[in-house]
Amino acid sequence: MKDELEQTLREQLCEIGRRLWTRQLCAGSDGNLSVRLGSDRYLCTPTGHSKGFLSTDLICRADAGPEQPSESHRLSSEWAMHRAIYDERPDVHAIIHSHPPTATGFALAHRLPATWVYAEADVLLHPIAMVPYVTPGDSRLAAAARSAARGSDVLLLANHGAVCVAESLEQAYFKMEMLEAFAQILIAAERVGGAKQFLTPEQGELAALRRKLRGDRFGPSSPRNKPGS
Known about the structure:
It is built from seven helices and seven strands, in the order αβββαβααβαββαα. The chain has 229 residues and is of the alpha+beta class. The protein has a single domain, classed as L-fuculose-1-phosphate Aldolase (3-Layer(aba) Sandwich), CATH 3.40.225. The protein has a seven-stranded mixed beta sheet, sandwiched between helices. α1 runs parallel beside α6, α2 (79-88) runs parallel beside α5 (139-149) and α3 crosses α6 (169-191).
């Protein structure tokens, strides 16, 4: 019998999956979500299922080992990437991987969104990291994502999609939603002449606000993603 916490997290995974699908941040069976359940225990969405139509009985249990659990529904093929990030970041309790269209367009172009042109992105998403392309499901992708996650909560997977990590599923979802909205805003800005970056004093003020809201994990002066980088 599942305990109350596990049941609650299963329900949250289904709810966040529905939000991703409703907001068109994933299509078909794209994407995968996971949450830390306890010491070396996790819950993860199954492979081959739309995130808009999950049910609690479809959610898979996972542990820290490399093997798939003996369940009727198989874990996402990207579970190894999730596990590698959890191993690297004990502070992370939820991970969302999805293919938000505009943000994924940046990933296909190998272009990092320039956070230092939009206050909310500079405070809440910075720094965004680009993970070099590796075939989805390959163990090398897990290693590459783990390395990138050491210095960022928001990852673009080159030619693939996006990953957001946080202390909760809700926070990870908000980051994914904001990442896609930010990417759309940048495209709109380019159509009317291009975004203008903040001046150095303004950058300092935003960095101070970021430290106040998010702490010093990524340092007081993490290099910003420059336009066109």
